[in-house]
Amino acid sequence: MNLRLYGLRNEAFGFSGLTHSCSNRVRFTSRENSKRISASAENNGTPSKSFDYDLIIIGVGVSGHGAVLHAVEKGLKTAIIEGDVVGGTCVNRGCVPSKALLAVNGKMRELQSEHHMKALGLQVSAAEYDRHGVEDHANNLASKIQSNLTNSMKALGIDILTGVGTIVGPQKVKYGKVGFPDNIVTVKDTIIATGPVSFVPKGIEVGWKTVITSDHALKLEYVPDWIAIVGSGYIGLEFSDVYTALGSEVTFIEALDQLMPGFDPEIGKLAQRVLINPRKIDYHTGVFAAKITPAKDGKLVTVELIDAKTKETKDTLEIDATLIATGRDLFTNGIGLKNLNVVTQRVSFLLMRECE
């Protein structure tokens, strides 16, 4: 059985007996390619003898959808297994809703700029927002793209198998919903495109509304007066922009000695000058959030900070909410890798990937 794992940005691009060459995007730019896809989609291919499918893709985010397009072009009998919602992280819990929120906060900042409004000859007494309306804006955009992806696969004749997909043995995959009998299908090759989940460091308890991940923050169920953001990568930076535009004060907690340590140095300096310094944002660097206690019984969230090097206690913050923005980790738990004796590192990363 040929097994391939695709993560956040690496997508299935070249199949030759399902061998794979690494690439960042799947592109179909010519009319000739489009015709080939349409022609191949008429019967969704004919499976190899003794198999239900040539290819099963577990997970249908951006990576899985790109793999579907190429598989159909190659005439492979293809099915997808989706246990959550079509579109994956990017459409439902990442790029799309976050950019929808950023578009809203961009308009808010424009309306809040008295100098800018005056230059246009406009007078705005007070810029206000409707939290539910902003939430609906982000959800509606995600739903529209989700629907488009689903319809595109139906038009291609792809079999959409609903439920949690698990590899039960060589060339066998089961799927099904909780509380219902599982179905087992046979397949020549399988692509794992289950995407990422929010990474929460050990010892941190995520609690509704007050200690949250980006998955929860995108729902915008609560806009706190003061929020701490643990981690100052792109996720934390985006949400600091959203929250400060909506009136929150933000405190970054960063384990390394500077904010945005993973950024190009020049980009990091520019981001700090434009997105952090002019806003209601302060920060602690070189510290860990050793313990975070969710708000309870009228008490605020408490965050205990320790020195990243000496592990000595540095400070304790009492705030309204905390966003855990320490990155994302590939989701591979429970999909049956152990049944194939696949070794993983750091919880979920495959020990070895084949890249040509």
UniProtKB/TrEMBL annotation:
What Enzyme Commission number does this protein have? 1.8.1.4
User: Which Gene3D superfamilies does the record cross-reference, listed alphabetically?
Assistant: FAD/NAD(P)-binding domain
Q: Name one GO biological process term.
A: 2-oxoglutarate metabolic process
Reactions catalysed, semicolon-separated, are:
N(6)-[(R)-dihydrolipoyl]-L-lysyl-[protein] + NAD(+) = N(6)-[(R)-lipoyl]-L-lysyl-[protein] + NADH + H(+)
What cofactor does this one take?
A: FAD
Q: List the GO molecular function terms.
A: dihydrolipoyl dehydrogenase (NADH) activity; flavin adenine dinucleotide binding
Q: Mind telling me which GO cellular component terms the entry cites?
A: mitochondrion; oxoglutarate dehydrogenase complex
This protein's name: dihydrolipoyl dehydrogenase
Q: What are the alphabetically sorted keywords of the record? A: Disulfide bond, FAD, Flavoprotein, NAD, Oxidoreductase, Redox-active center, Transit peptide
Q: Which family does it belong to?
A: Belongs to the class-I pyridine nucleotide-disulfide oxidoreductase family.
* InterPro entries (alphabetical): Class-I_Pyr_Nuc-Dis_Oxidored (IPR050151), FAD/NAD-bd_sf (IPR036188), FAD/NAD-binding_dom (IPR023753), Pyr_OxRdtase_I_AS (IPR012999)
PANTHER family with a match to the protein in the record = DIHYDROLIPOYL DEHYDROGENASE, MITOCHONDRIAL (PTHR22912:SF151), DISULFIDE OXIDOREDUCTASE (PTHR22912)
